Amino acid sequence: MLKIAPYFSNKLIAWYLQNKRELPWRNTANPYHIWLSEIMLQQTRVLQGLPYYLKFVEAYPKIEDLANAPEDEVLKLWQGLGYYSRARNLHATAKMVSEEMKGAFPNNYKDLLKLKGVGDYTASAIASISFNQPEAVVDGNVYRVLSRFFGISTPINTTAGQKEFKKLAQRLIDKDQPGTFNQAIMEFGARFCVPQNPDCGNCIFNDSCVAFQQRKVSQLPMKIKSKTVKIRFFNYLVFLSENERTILQQRNGKGIWHKLYEFPLIETSEEINLSMLKKLPQFQDFSKKLNIENISLFNEKPVVHKLSHQHLNTRFWIVETSEASESTIPISEVKNYAVPVLIENFVSEFFENY
């Protein structure tokens, strides 16, 4: 391992310096910017995350600006990136750093881990890139590169696998330029040692990659089979009153989309028709409060919204009423609320010419 480490890191860094993408967070060691980019790029591709990073940096140039922003505003700006707990943790950490640490990020791995939403990967990235500490990052890209190069078949979604790969990455990291090494191995995994059909014939490591030599590239990294996908049936009631008002409710329970807004939701165990909808207790509760004049189905075919481990079969019921309760809002204001992308897509289509 001691002999392979310099060979591996030197070759990787040389490749990176010649092939790296020019990204705004690579031109700074500012921990606020590094932290922001790393949180956004968790479970998000660079091309998708980049516009959000630029919007956040423009809206909140300093961490104090982010800390002082209303949470609804932060969620609205985050809208479309998904995994909204990241945005809530982002806001909470901004407040903590701004108020309790006088705006200065912790300068070491151990203390960075104490920040909300910051795990091993993010703490390692900030510590190495911003503070030049030899803390190795391990993400999906790193798992892929290391498992193939060394021919490791330990499943990456097990505790044993995570410990093994972290220890290996820590041994390989270039202690003189840890930030560059970490970015190099992530970039290499994202752009060259890709999940499907990598160009192994032109790989800088094809003379020493175990997976390539043993024709196991497509088999690595190994994963234990994930959970069964849960199928759910969502029925949104889109109330429209004569004076152009509707109802939005905030999700406050545990589960997906915490603190985001949505139309009144009735979840069922199967797909339902209009007759079945009218018999549901939740719908009857609304019938008692509002004078419902007409109900129509916006989409006969359910919109299937796929999340990790669950698929939401969603239908939007347009419910016209002659009355508007105190809890309604003007239809023109719906676009100002932070909503899941599923709702945003419906709003864009249905209310575009309303």
From TrEMBL:
Catalytic activity: Hydrolyzes free adenine bases from 7,8-dihydro-8-oxoguanine:adenine mismatched double-stranded DNA, leaving an apurinic site
All copies of domain HhH-GPD, residue ranges: 40-191
Stretches of the chain forming a coiled coil according to its record: none
Domain of life: Bacteria
Family annotation (Pfam families): HHH, HhH-GPD, NUDIX_4
One GO-annotated biological process of the protein: mismatch repair
SMART domains in the record: ENDO3c
Keyword Translocase in annotation: no
EC number assigned by the record: 3.2.2.31
Cofactor(s) annotated in UniProt: [4Fe-4S] cluster
GO molecular function per UniProt: 4 iron, 4 sulfur cluster binding; 8-oxo-7,8-dihydroguanine DNA N-glycosylase activity; adenine/guanine mispair binding; metal ion binding; oxidized purine DNA binding; purine-specific mismatch base pair DNA N-glycosylase activity
Cofactor note: Binds 1 [4Fe-4S] cluster.
Keywords, alphabetical: 4Fe-4S, DNA damage, DNA repair, Glycosidase, Hydrolase, Iron, Iron-sulfur, Metal-binding
Hydrolase listed as a keyword: yes
Function field: Adenine glycosylase active on G-A mispairs. MutY also corrects error-prone DNA synthesis past GO lesions which are due to the oxidatively damaged form of guanine: 7,8-dihydro-8-oxoguanine (8-oxo-dGTP).
Family note: Belongs to the Nth/MutY family.
Protein name stated in the entry: Adenine DNA glycosylase
Organism listed in the record: Aequorivita soesokkakensis
